[in-house]
Fold each of these.
Amino acid sequence: MAFGSYMAMGGHVRIDVRVVDVETSLVKFSEDTAGLPQDTAKQMQAMAVHLANKLGSNAISGKENATDMILWKRYEEGVSLMDKHLYELAITVFKDILQGDPGFAAAEKQIKLAIELQTRQ
């Protein structure tokens, strides 16, 4: 997940971006740039390209990325079901995700959490 902020001061604009691993909440890397307000759009474009290169080919749109987005949307659906205490349905969604991508570690963690929370009910 990417987080960003900007600050204008003294006739310059500073832009900061952090990329955070959603599974661990650790900052993977960060970027910053500063310049004149009229150059902000160009700086943001250059920063976006640089961040995409750091993230690797998964950040470039295409079939693989589209599949990942579908799985992540399903993942969000499962988390939403857990928020509603519908653990059995959430487990089904996460198992579905793992059939599509057995290496989807976040879904595997959520299954374990859902089972644990379900036993506490």
Amino acid sequence: MWKQKLKNVSKLGLGFSRRWISIEKQVGGIRRKRFAALWGNGDYGRLGLGKVDSQWSPTVCSALENQNLKAISCGGAHTLFLTEAGRVYATGLNDYGQLGISPEKSYTLEPLEISGLPEEIIRVSAGYHHSSAITANGVLYMWGNNSSGQLGLGKRAAKKVSKPSRVDCLNNVRIKMVALGSEHSIAITDEGEALSWGAGGSGRLGHGHQSSILGFLRSSRLEQVNLHQGLSKLYRGTRLKLSLRDSCIQLASTKMALYSYLAKEVCISWALEKQMMQHHHQ
């Protein structure tokens, strides 16, 4: 498990483009409900508009007009919707159980509520073929493709998990947010600790090797670094963003600089980041 201290993180994501906007209706200056407008590739009903047609401009998802939406997360070919009441809906491709509904449905054209989440959900995240949800108590649930251990359910877990499953090995840890890539996952705890697991190819987990991690194995080789404290003096007061496109993590923070050059985005590679940290501590 790769582990770092990350403070003041407000958002975490892994490598998927947005295809939605949240619109808030107001009447007389009074806040009303929020709803979703989506566009882009409509294959498998991933937009939740009741059809597979692609949309070239934002189109309101009428199936959820009666819900007050809090957040939306877009995966490879599926989308998760979170309401203010803590309910989760899913639409799109379900070939690996990533919708959290009956595996008999290979896809759905409109959002369906996920019934296997027992507690109020405050965050959701959609990966390429897997999904996650975090409860108000910091409990992590995951489901979908588990071919590389990206669900964190251990070696005995099935390769496809269609029902939201609690990640029991994190019972004593409160999860703050999660980001899902194609075959790996990253989480941040309420203590600012970053955890990574799943496919380790190209060093995307930050463990110092390319082996996959099926659970949360702590490495004695891991160097403890507090990124917030280590870089705040170098980049004080600036608002910066990391986006490593399916290789690392994307996050926003007021006192953090981690950049790489990928997809026309300027960033610092992990190797350069380590050099910066070593230079700072000298």
Amino acid sequence: MKKLILFLIFAAGLIVILIFALTTSLGDLKGVETREVPEVVKDEAFGGVYVKTEGEPTEYCRVIDVGGKSKFLQVRADDQYMIGYLKARAISDEMISYMETVDKEVTDYAGSLLMHRAKKKSRYYWKAIDDRYRDEITGVYHGLLDEGHDVKAADVLFAYTWRELVYVTLAVRIGPIYYKLFYKDKGKETGGCSSFGILNPDGSVIIAQTIDSPPQSKGFGDYYFEEQRINGEDVVTTMSSYAGLFGWDMGWNSKGVSVVINNMFTKEYAKEPRLPYTFRGREALRIADDAYEYVEHWTKTGSPNAQNFMVTDLKGNLLRLERSREEFVITDVKKDGLKGTYWEDIGMLTSTNTFVTDEMKHLILFPDVCTGRQPTADTTAKKYAADGRVTLIEMKEILAYQPEGEITDENAICYRPQHLIEKNNASITVYQLIFAVEDGVRKIYLKENLDCGDKDYVSPVDPLSR
């Protein structure tokens, strides 16, 4: 009995020590250097901020509203520090909202102790990342301070890395249970569905639009696209799921390399510190001339966390990159297809400028399929996502269709997903594709539940074989 009491006292002491260690303030990052910055002007007519200079601004950050819930952030600066600084000065409120939302949602999901542990682990990155990206984080930190926000550099670092850290702590096991038992808004998710324009060969985006379910938290509403040019280097255009622009899910570069990522996680960050994927993806986009070069760069980073990539380019390459146990698996989709894959690949394929052929360079598809969760409110987002999702071949057939002659509403076609007909053995929703030209850009619109008569569309064409 005495031994049992001593053991219980010892165990209680260990628990107290553990709780103390996990809840003790971490303080701020070390080695965050101060830096003098030039005068920055805020200009509503310009749409953002710029470094004061004679003539036209050469260093600036401005927000361009491209419609819907999408915004395009255009950043021009001489170095990575100013990239971060100008972004923070231009969208500081969104960044702070994002950081607050991450803290709340992750804490609700995983609990305070595990949240604290993830924040502690994020400091591995501060020692491991390249100087340029450490400069960017520092620039964001200083920009937020200059906008009057009370933040720590460590909070900014965590905003860049939290998705790689939170889900590989014990939260990955305990979190779902905690979430279901204690989270008040049970069943709610911050979902998103995206629709993207096609990239021009010169690196510009023809048009970009996204659709999203209503955000559960104010920091997760809009989507942002970010365009960077540093010292005349190639444009890197990336897309964040969140308004704070810390994450990175999809991107393009001026060579037409396009990538979309799904299911990112890291298992070995403590053993092998490295760039968080936010920066790794940007770095690969910055230097890659085609899809193969992108994949080669990514696999050489030593990252254990690449699962489910799709990469395309203007040469027509389409690659799937997957992490399987201890090795990367690279599939040439045009050559080998997507054997044994699952529906998320369909979302990824249709969320990048995929199937870039001569026939498709001026096509823009509205709307796109979700890359993750299916939204619950915006019915237009469900056109390709309903009842088991459209199959890969069907999506390719839709994208390959080219009406002859002048593009008018009379060229509309009707399409009934074949796999749904077989599944339901009944008449189902009909999608009418309407082709139009607006401002010289060819677009596809969809309407559903239409009486199409005899205009059913079934195409044998596989654009990947063209």
